[in-house]
Amino acid sequence: MLILSFESSCDETSCAVVDMSDESRVIRSNIIASQISIHALYGGVVPEIASRAHCEAISSITDQALDKANITLDEIDAVAVTYTPGLVGALLVGVNFAKALAYSVGKPLVGVDHIKGHVAASYFLTPAPKPPFLAFVASGGHTSLIDVKSYTDFDTIGRTRDDAMGEAFDKVARVIGLGYPGGAEMDKLASVGDPKAIKFPSPAIPDDSLDFSFSGLKTAVINHVNTLKMKELSYNKADIAASFTYAITNSVINKLSSAVERTRRIKLVAAGGVSANSHLRASLKAFSIRNNISLYLPDLSLCGDNAAMIGAQAYYEYKAGKIADLRLNAVVN
Ligand code: KG4
Ligand code: ZN
């Protein structure tokens, strides 16, 4: 089944063609127009600018996706689009474009939840995970532990109570003077720092829940930097990045251990922009070996926002009969 899919929930406009069946999943094209350089000027995503940039990019990336896949619109079996969660103006650009396109070529329209899309990035792995499994999704806007009961039935069993994990990476990066978004740079710096140099508080909430809170950790980093600055002492960026990352990865492993114990799942998928973090990936690998769990980490190119993952999830939504009509609307969360 050939699916033309769109992603525009935040600061990447993406269009893909994926060829999906139960036996094979092929990415024929996956074009991503990133707005990062525009938003970097402001130190974060400016919603109004994001919507306008999506409008400017979406037609041409659709042409590019079709050209690269070497197909015409007539050959497409369905059109898919992220409709939730995200920035409302940004989502509306993709939703309206996809609706108009589906209507004009008379093809079914499938609305996809962005978080489910992130998880579906793992379906391009060989072997691919088959539900049921546990999923940990961490990005710039979300941090969730999910019991994936079937391809379309997701039960969120843990979440952040404040910032998202990627947001925490970006904010700490800013505090120590790195560019936006700072997650990838923090990753590199952490590799040359000492993870035990500074004892930062754990973002794993110390109760029976599977929830996280990043505000205490963020404040601890700010206090550490400010205290040294007041004493006119220099601070070690690499040690901060490494110690911060250590606190984060430990909290993930802590809550994942409880989640595995609770759900008895034996497969784990990690997804979202933060799942590209090399330290988190290493900790997850060690955790899965210790616990005899099969771990599925999407290819680095599919961790961040992209339309191929939306197309992959759309296949399962379509098979479950979840076809949208022209009333499909953007839903913020
Ligand atoms: O999934 P994504 O591309 O967009 C959202 O849905 O939000 O995730 C972007 C987030 C940003 O906060 C970025 O700093 C973070 O993922 N990120 C990383 C790494 N690469 C991207 N965080 C930590 N380590 C990385 N290597
Ligand atoms: Zn995302």
Written account of the structure:
α4 crosses α10, α5 runs parallel beside α7 and α6 packs across α8. The protein is globular. It has 2 domains: 136 residues, ATPase, nucleotide binding domain (Nucleotidyltransferase, domain 5, 2-Layer Sandwich), CATH 3.30.420.40; 169 residues, 2-Layer Sandwich (Nucleotidyltransferase, domain 5). The protein is built from 10 helices and 10 strands. It is an alpha/beta fold and 333 residues long. It has a 5-stranded mixed beta sheet with strand order 3-2-1-4-5, with helices on both faces. A 5-stranded mixed beta sheet has the order 8-7-6-9-10, with helices on both faces. Helix content is 42%, strand content 19%. The longest helix has 27 residues. Zinc ion binds next to α4.
Protein traits:
333 residues, alpha/beta, Nucleotidyltransferase, domain 5, 2 domains, five-stranded mixed sheet, 10 strands, 42% helix, binds 5'-O-[(R)-(carboxyoxy)(hydroxy)phosphoryl]adenosine, binds zinc ion
Give me the Rg, rounded: 20 Å
Using the alpha-carbon principal axes, give the shape: globular
Q: In total, how many beta strands?
A: 10
CATH superfamily of the largest domain: ATPase, nucleotide binding domain
Task: Kindly report the average pLDDT value.
Answer: 97
Q: Classify the secondary structure makeup into a structural class.
A: alpha/beta
User: CATH topology of the largest domain, what is it called?
Assistant: Nucleotidyltransferase, domain 5
What's the CATH C level of the largest domain?
A: Alpha Beta
Question: How is the quaternary structure best described?
Answer: single chain
Instruction: Spell out the helices and strands N to C.
Output: EEEHHEHEHEEEHHHHEHEH
Ligand set: 5'-O-[(R)-(carboxyoxy)(hydroxy)phosphoryl]adenosine, zinc ion
Tell me the number of helical segments per DSSP (H or I, 4 or more residues long). Answer: 10
The second-level CATH architecture of the largest domain is 2-Layer Sandwich
